[in-house]
Amino acid sequence: MELKNIIFILFFILAVSIFSWSCRNLIRYMLVAKKKDDRFNNAGKRLKKVWTVAFVQTKLLRDPKAGILHLLIFWGFVLFLFAIIEVMIQGFYSSFTLEFTGPFYSVVTIIQDIFSVLVITACLYALYRRFVVHIPRLEVDKAGKLDAAFILVLIIFVCVFMLGQNISHVAKHNFTLSEYEVRPISNYLAGIFYSTESNSALSNYEFFWWAHIVVIFGFMNFLPYSKHLHVLTSIPNTYFSNLDEIRNTLKSVNLEDESLEVYGAADIEQLSWKQILDGYSCTECGRCTDACPASTVGKSLSPRKIIVDIRRRTRDKAPHLVNGETSGIPTSRDEKTLVHDYITDIELWECTTCMACVKECPVMIEHVDSIVDMRRNLVLTESQFPANLNNVFKSLETNFTPWAFNLSDRGNWAEGLNIRTMAEDSDTDVLFWVGCAGSYDDRYKKVSRAFAALMQKAEVNFRILGTEEKCNGDTARRLGNEYLSQMMIKENVETLNRYGVKNIVSACPHCFHSLGREYKQFGGDYNVKHHSQFINELIDEGKIQLKDNNAEIKATYHDSCYLGRYNDVYDSPRNSLKSISGLKLTEMERSRSKGFCCGAGGGRMFLEDEEGGRINEERTREALATGADTIASACPFCMTMLNDGVKHFEKTEEVSVKDIAELVLENVN
User: Fold this and answer.
1) Number of domains into which the chain is organized
2) Which of 443, 447, 539, 617 pairs as cysteine with 659 (C-beta 3.0–4.6 A)?
3) Could you give phi then psi for residue 598, rounded to 5 degrees?
4) Which stretch of DSSP H or E encloses residue 29?
5) In the listed set 381, 405, 427, which residue is the last one of a domain according to the structure?
């Protein structure tokens, strides 16, 4: 064993020990979170998600330019692992190489050469984008910029020193490669930097070898304290992300658990370990905030800041908690907490729960879950919420609708249509869940009547619940009032199960999502379709015949967040519209999974805009830019917000907002 090996072993033990200590602390900090969150099931599905999201990087490639850039850097590091393994083993046994692997060694060496250059180029371009072009979503504070620059420069050094080592390796072997070595770039550069009689190759090789080792260990030990901690945590975070079956659904609170002292989350202890891991995994890339409708129109909310603040609070408080310290730990209302001090109330109330942030996040962070947990604390534990929600909660509790309408009037929209209720005759193929807006809102009652007329024309055997129907609970749940939400959900489930309901159709995406995805948590397992899906099926089956139309309709379609991003329903509404003769459909700039929110979700329908612009006006501006004379929607909240937007721009004479059911009914043969 040479002196070099002894020094390396000591350095290796020191570096690995420090790294292990840092990782141990991160895990201990993560476990101060006490909210239960079991994510250890379905290993096969989770590994598949890791492959598609973490390795193939499908979410990053939604932005092709930045996605390809990151893909090169990521795969460069993955492929460099073989070179790093070789170098590490050489630290113990100087003469070791991977040459014994034969042709595989050829692959390793050529990849080292090519990807070294590609990664250096990608890092230089990343620095250019961040510090010369100043991409808006990459703009962070001074510390964040220094962190990003330092990491990118370290990556460049890793590649430069590895190339330097390989170039010197070629030169010190008299420019003769072994049987399976393929190093075209190193071989070429060796001829430039070294003469055939150079004696410096050996000393330079040792310098680059040690420089490579030092930078690798330095990089490794810097990561736990850097915003680039995601290099270590993004794959675990992707693995433990919600599976598709429950993704975009809120987890219920066990309100009967008498051990709960706080409902929701006031501080990191009330979060789950996964929510702390989300904080560790945030790359601060800004994709979430760039897609956020509230941030776009100038409001305080930044999904990136929410997650970064969770990480900051964890680093500030968790070390004290794990060491059993009590002094300096915030315990009273006068001292700091995550909610109020790190994250302000107004930030939490500005979220529309549109899921744009979650959709864009390349490391599968679940921003909305954390926001709603903090809302739950404000509502259920602290009773601190915007004053105008008092009437909303009161109406939901007494009238089972967010508006002050009488329950006995819930079925009045159907008068004269010869529609029977389940109480009158429960022998039916499908239940039409009308929803609060479809029952009470004058504009959306027309949609309920239009959809009912379509089903009657198609001879669908359907019923309604009438006065037995209550609000689906979505509004209360997204606003943080889990108690009120569960009360209505459980009563609805009892009613539906009593009638043996199996199939439900609804014209409201919020009802559609809650009934189909979240009622399962409370014993309600139903086959639920949105009315746009149902209409499309009726057209495809020939049960609805559309007439030839000579008049041209210029239309654009607005994707409801709870229909699109939440449930991946994009084609059915468009197919129904395209079936209408003479209708020309033009997409908005932001559509389908990148569609822009109307501004009403997450209970925002019932809250005032305290700052910034109006989200619905931003969306309406985009719709009007298409030149459409008809804005098609498939959601009562979206219809209200878009109508208000059209009025704001004084375009009510030129542009109409219509539901898909209305457009199809107008063109029925």
Assistant:
1) 4
2) 447
3) -80, -20
4) helix 3-30
5) 381
Long-range contacts of 620-625 (CB under 8 A, 24+ apart): 620/645, 620/646, 620/648, 620/649, 621/645, 621/649, 622/588, 622/589, 622/590, 622/596, 623/556, 623/558, 623/588, 623/655, 624/649, 624/651, 624/655, 625/588, 625/589
Range of the domain at 562: 543-666
In the chain, the largest separation of any two C-alpha atoms, in whole Å, equals 101
Rounded CA separation 463/620 (Å):
35
Q: Apex CA 392: angle with CA 420 and CA 444, to 5°?
A: 40
Residue 349 lies in a domain: yes
Residues 315 and 282 sit within 8 Å (Cβ to Cβ):
no
Last residue of a domain, one of 381, 414, 439: 381
Whether residue 212 sits in one domain with residue 110? yes
Residue 354: inside a domain, yes or no?
Answer: yes
Under 8 Å CB-to-CB from 219, ≥6 apart: which residues?
A: 151, 154, 155, 158
Inter-CA distances, 30 with 1, 25, 315, 428, 560, Å: 41, 8, 10, 51, 35
Residue 394 · residue 388 · CB < 8 Å: no
DSSP state, 560? Answer: P
Can you read off the two tokens belonging to residue 476? 């209360």
- CB count within 10 Å of CB 231 equals 17
For 299-316, write each residue's pLDDT tens digit: 999 999 999 999 999 999
Q: Give the tens place of pLDDT for each residue, 330-377.
A: 454 347 999 999 999 999 999 999 999 999 999 999 999 999 999 999
Residues 368-416: tens digit of each pLDDT: 999 999 999 999 999 999 999 999 999 999 999 999 999 999 999 999 9
Provide the pairing of β-strand 503-506 with 656-659.
unpaired
* Within-domain flag for 445: yes
The pLDDT tens digits for 517-536 are: 999 999 999 999 999 999 99
Asked if residues 360 and 295 have their Cβ atoms less than 8 Å apart, the reply is: no
223 DSSP assignment: G
